[in-house]
Amino acid sequence: MSTSESSVNVAANFLRPIVEADLQSGKHSSIVTRFPPEPNGYLHIGHAKSICLNFGLAKEFGGVCHLRFDDTNPAKEEQEYIDAIKDDVRWLGFQWDGEVRYASDYFEQLYQWAVYLVEQGKAYVCDLSPEQAREYRGSLTEPGKNSPFRERSVSENLDLLTRMRAGEFPDGARALRAKIDMASPNMNLRDPILYRIRHAHHHQTGDQWCIYPSYDFTHGQSDAIEKITHSICTLEFEDHRPLYEWFLEQLPVPAKPRQYEFARLNLNYTVTSKRKLKQLVDDNHVSGWDDPRMSTISGFRRRGYTPASIRNFCDMIGVNRAGGIVDLSMLEFCIREDLDNNASRAMCVLKPLKVVITNYPEEQEQILQLPRHPKREMGVRELPFAREIYIDANDYDENPPKGYKRLVPGGEVRLRGSYVIRADQAIRDAEGHIVELHCSYDPETLGKNPEGRKVKGVIHWVPAAQSVECEVRLYDRLFKTANPDKDEDGETSDSFLDNINPESLQVLKGCRAEPSLLQAQVGEGFQFEREGYFCLDSVDSKPGALVFNRTVTLRDSWGKA
Ligand code: ATP
Ligand code: MG
Q: Beta strands 64-69 and 32-35: pairing type?
């Protein structure tokens, strides 16, 4: 799909001038960034911001970006997540430099550095239980206490660490800790854990290890090994920066990366936490990680969002250090704009009502040519016009409200791209429901206005015989409250499950699509005229049983109905 210019404004990114200055001053001759997901779930829209930022800066300044899995917690990680994350990054339009990297590639080097710290008297094996360690740690208002194991000799520590690695001790029996400062006002510096004992199988290293490094001990050193120049993470790691720097100072690392923090993306009507998204999947509130209502990248993809729309959204929200909640309608604006520019038009009748055009000859069929796009040169689609067609049941009303411009008894309306018809008679079943409409057409009105009268309304339609039966899924926001994470008192809680919108999915069967939609491809967006933007469902749609997802409505009418 070709993309025309977007009108999205690119907002400020405070990291751009920093990178620029580092390149100008010669501090770095080129930049290396990384995107470091933990493979414990699918990526969500918040990750898209980080991906666009890290890959975007590298691209803009002629540098490179690594994809590195932060895989230090084997209990929660899975190959399925690794594969999905790679797909999502590529789909967003980015390519990492070289092979995919794993923090676990560096486990041996990290272990050697742990030994080095022990030898320098900067790390020790601590036998406090996790509960005791918590007690010794103190609080934000109270300093911690030194562990009774803090003054072990270097040789005893080396012996214990070797035996930890060899698997002599059970999970949680001991830990390796850095010897920094139990009284530091920064809790992260209160002798943080470097290694935990976990007899767990790892998706990359198998059963090679039974001790695993902590995030803090892994992250900065992995950055150093990869000679990352700008290590960009979200603000909750700001307090970890002194520790990040402490390790880099103590260890004989090959480079000294710098950490920068930015505000995470929070989107209203949305949860962006892998834990919560996983809960939605595990508890069957949605059909899976790629359910089109999910805020995952794979969910947006299946819903019909384009990579460009998500990248534009990330450009539009910018990068800064001040948090805040972004309005979901900004994201919807971006996809609407993209599809308005690029999506082929088509007609699909969601609630079919048969119309017989009584003065149109029974055997006759006329192939009409309708433009794929009203403004751009995208060619035409062919649409047969015949005696029997379908219109939407909502487009005929015997008691029309004021201002109704569609079909009324005895009234006229234009069929999009076709003739003007007049409603002559409604045929009813035994219960009085309208089952068919008899109309007549004006043969002089193809491509021109009727003589001597004005016809205001235009409705969509499809030919009865040549149209294709399909299922249409209308999606709405998954949550009915703007802050699904908050309960009624505004407190953060797990009540997000109570805020699920019970009407977030409406399934319509027996819809009728124009025949050109038989050629629809997965990943292709359409504007169903007067109905919204749609795409083929990548999972459930099959030849002979087409399923279309509504990506977004034509206009932002949320909450205004
Ligand atoms: P979650 O809380 O959803 O599990 P996480 O931060 O633990 O997210 P990671 O896999 O560790 O997930 O994240 C990889 C990268 O994406 C990190 O650099 C992280 O800071 C960034 N990231 C995660 N969530 C957001 C967000 N909402 N906005 C911007 N960046 C994010
Ligand atoms: Mg994380």
A: parallel
Among 150, 180, 213, the domain boundary falls at 213
What pTM, to 2 d.p., does this model score? 0.95
Tell me if 205 CB under 6 Å of ligand 1: no
Residue 454 predicted with pLDDT over 60:
yes
CA distance 470 to 459: 20
User: How wide is the angle at C-alpha 43 spanned by C-alphas 42 and 48, nearest 5°?
Assistant: 170
Please give the Cα distance from 553 to 185 (Å, whole number): 51
Q: How far apart are CA 218 and CA 202, in angstroms?
A: 16
Q: How many domains does the chain have?
A: 3
Distance CA 486, CA 482 (A): 9
320 Cβ closer than 6 Å to some ligand 1 atom: no
Range of lowest pLDDT (35-44, 228-237, 487-496, 542-551): 487-496
3-class state of residue 123 by DSSP: strand
The closest ligand to the CA of 234 turns out to be: 1
Instruction: Give the active site residue among 49, 274, 387, 406.
Output: 274
Q: For residue 75, give Cα distances in angstroms to 198, 199, 304, 352.
A: 9, 10, 33, 51
Strand partners, 461: 391
CATH code (residue 373): 2.40.240.10
- Asked if residue 287 has pLDDT above 90, the reply is yes
Report the alpha-carbon distance of residue 536 to residue 549 in Å, rounded.
Answer: 6
28, 89: one domain:
yes
Q: Are residues 113 and 68 in the same domain?
A: no
Cβ(295) to ligand 1 under 6 A?
Answer: no
In a domain, 521, yes or no: no
Contact 70/237 with Cβ under 8 angstroms?
Answer: no
Catalytic residue among 76, 165, 264, 480: 264
**pLDDT of 247-263, one tens digit each?**
999 999 999 999 999 99
Residue 533 in any domain: the answer is: no
Q: What CATH number corresponds to the domain at position 200?
A: 3.90.800.10
DSSP-derived secondary structure letter, 276: H
- Residue 439 and residue 423 share a domain: yes
One-letter amino acid of 337: E
188 in a structural domain:
yes
Residue-number span of the structural domain to which 84 is assigned: 5-99+218-264+304-335
Same domain, 76 and 223: yes
Give pLDDT tens digits for 33-74: 999 999 999 999 999 999 999 999 999 999 999 999 999 999
Same domain, 163 and 25: no
Instruction: Give the β-pairing of 365-371 and 344-346.
Output: unpaired
249 carries an active-site annotation: no
Q: Is residue 83 part of a domain?
A: yes
pLDDT for residue 4: 47
